[in-house]
């Protein structure tokens, strides 16, 4: 079976087509014929070898990818799902390990990591939802803000940040979000109530709008300590790269690790429903064949990508 992976760690040029064994769905699992796999920043870290110490698989190939969409083509014993049958259009979230990553044409997943794709969404569009939207949802759940409270979002034009903005508005929060001048209209369209200019001084700009500080902040821009001054004493910070705060002013910090909710089928299915209801927007930058995975990583590395790059099989 074809996959895009690495046999030696490195930059984008390390990615190439590799052959991986066919797998079959075991008990509690389903197999997808993958037609689309989203390229995310975390994938670039896997390619560089940043996760090799925590990966129990120590031999190549290593296949990145945490978001997939395609068609169910095999259902394992004990999976009793009215919403999933062979031939159903589906999407799933992947926790990569060794050759078990999203960039492959056939993939076995726990059944609770897979739900139907949103109606009227293409496979390419559906593949952009699972990982980033689940991470956004988990961040909001960890912070536990109440309707009417104020949430700040950095990196709001990105996939994670954009989903945080839309989900927060659906939860009844007031949202202040950052944006470059070029992205300001996009971020307003996502639903932000207040938009401030992005940059190293974003905390100061947020405080100018909310002098008492915000109740919570989702740091999609990975600015870590730079954003802490924007948060009120006793507020909350959700991070996506493991930052744990400085322990001061009672600010609660929540590193958001999506692998902890990778089998939260109810949450993933609710996100599907929110796409169908128009609450969430699926944003695609461009689709490339899997053979061009290295080029997709080069494009991502140059920065400024709005919407997701997606590999097709």
Notes on the structure:
With 313 residues, the protein is an alpha/beta fold. 24% of the residues lie in helices and 27% in strands. It has eight helices and 15 strands. Strands 3, 4, 5, 6, 7, 14 and 15 form a seven-stranded mixed sheet that branches. It has a six-stranded parallel sheet with strand order 10-9-8-11-12-13, sandwiched between helices. Strands 1-2 form a two-stranded antiparallel ribbon. Strand 9, helix 5 (184-190) and strand 10 form a beta-alpha-beta unit. The longest helix has 14 residues, at 130-143.
Write the layout of secondary structure elements.
Layout lengths: L1 E4 L10 E4 L9 E11 L1 H8 L18 E9 L13 E5 L12 E5 L3 E3 L6 H4 L3 H14 L6 E5 L4 H12 L3 E6 L4 H7 L3 E4 L4 H8 L4 E6 L11 E9 L12 E4 L9 H12 L7 E6 L3 H10 L5 E5 L1
């Amino acid at each position: 079976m074809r996959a895009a992976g690495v046999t030696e760690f490195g930059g984008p040029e390390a990615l190439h087509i590799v052959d991986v064994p066919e797998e079959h769905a075991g008990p509690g699992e389903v197999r997808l014929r993958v037609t689309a796999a989203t390229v995310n920043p975390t994938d670039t870290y896997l390619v560089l070898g940043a996760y090799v110490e925590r990966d129990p698989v120590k031999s190549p190939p290593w296949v990145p990818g945490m978001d997939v969409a395609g068609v169910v083509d095999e259902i394992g014993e004990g999976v009793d799902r009215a919403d999933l049958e062979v031939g159903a259009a589906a999407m799933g979230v992947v926790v990569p390990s060794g050759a078990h990553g999203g960039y492959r044409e056939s993939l076995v997943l726990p059944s609770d990591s897979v739900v139907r794709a949103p109606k009227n969404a293409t496979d390419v569009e559906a593949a952009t939802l699972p990982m980033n939207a689940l991470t956004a949802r988990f961040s909001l759940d960890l912070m536990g803000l109440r309707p009417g409270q104020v949430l700040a979002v950095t990196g709001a034009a990105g996939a994670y940040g954009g989903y945080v903005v839309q989900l927060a508005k659906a939860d009844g929060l007031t949202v202040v979000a950052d944006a470059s001048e070029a992205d300001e209209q996009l971020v307003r369209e996502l639903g932000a109530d207040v938009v401030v200019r992005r940059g190293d001084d974003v905390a100061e700009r947020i405080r100018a709008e909310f002098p008492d500080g915000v109740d919570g902040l989702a740091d999609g821009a990975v600015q870590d300590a730079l954003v802490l001054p924007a948060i009120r004493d006793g507020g909350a910070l959700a991070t996506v790269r493991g930052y744990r705060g400085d322990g001061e002013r009672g600010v609660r910090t929540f590193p958001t690790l999506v692998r902890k909710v990778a089998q939260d089928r109810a949450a993933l299915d609710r996100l599907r429903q929110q796409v169908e209801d128009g609450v969430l927007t699926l944003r695609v930058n461009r689709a490339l064949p899997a053979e061009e995975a290295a080029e997709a990583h080069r494009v991502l590395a140059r920065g400024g990508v709005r919407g997701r790059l997606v590999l097709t099989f």
